[in-house]
Amino acid sequence: MRIVQSIILFLIFVVALAFAVINADAVKIDYYVGSIEMPLSVIVVVTFALGAIVGLLVSLGRMLGLKRELNQVRRAERISQQELTNLRSMPIRQDH
Questions:
Q1: How far is residue 30's CA from residue 34's CA, in Å, rounded to a whole number?
Q2: H and E: helices and strands count for the chain
Q3: 3-class state of residue 76 by DSSP
Q4: What residues have CB less than 8 Å from 40, skipping those under 6 apart?
Q5: Percent of the chain with pLDDT over 90
Q6: Confidence band (pLDDT; 50, 70, 90) for 96?
Q7: Apex CA 79: angle with CA 87 and CA 62, to 5°?
Q8: Which residues pair with 12 in a beta bridge?
């Protein structure tokens, strides 16, 4: 499995390198307070990285909520297991 991951990572690297070489021309980006000229490949990488960071930050709240919920469920399960153990160890009463 590790070999497959290495091969996939290598192929992604080769494709990214080919993209960077093909798109080495500078592109002008205009924004409200000015403009900047950068190679297109750098712009794509920076945009991808910013998107990944924003996606991680957005999903972080959900992940923390799920972790809290998992801890609550584990705590309830532990209490239920203890109660079950206590009930199993109690003697059976016969009232006739």
A1: 6
A2: 2, 2
A3: helix
A4: 23, 24, 25, 26, 27
A5: 54
A6: low
A7: 150
A8: none
